[in-house]
Amino acid sequence: MMSLFSGKNPRLIILDRDGVINQDSLHYIKSPDEFIPLPGSCEAIARLTQAGVRVAVATNQSGIARGYYNEAQLHTINEKMKACVRSVGGCIDFVVYCPHMPNAGCGCRKPQSGMLLTIAKHFDCSLENVPFIGDRVSDIQAAEAAGAIPLMVLSPMTDRSSLVDYPHVPVFNTLMDCVDEWLGIRCLM
What we know:
alpha/beta
């Protein structure tokens, strides 16, 4: 049995943060204490690292513009995320974020492609065959606008009714399920 993603393994995978790597909250993740990794997410990133895949994170963080936390606090949250991943043998190579409000009209906030294009520039690569794993339709839209491959992980924030408009996008229950499929691990079982 061939993997859904046979022949497409890139040297880079992009992840959304909240709802993919850690538990999301309607009240925002405002401190390192509120950053709670989802079961298996750090281990999934470690599998990618051990397979020679670079990992980047692209995350909307309008909590900054809303005054819930500042960029220094976001940095400490992201450092906790990186430390959690390092503790199991993985590495997050690059993190970009959009601090703007949804109505700011910026080019970086998903569903716009700005953050993904920043990642492509950082790694000096095309986004063709590069997956972007998110949990919201705006992640799908950003991936498609940037020429990346959209993949979905279900979270409490996923608008499942909107997924009918994207039947071509593979949907997984967890980041580990998605990574296992991408790396072809399920094909060996």
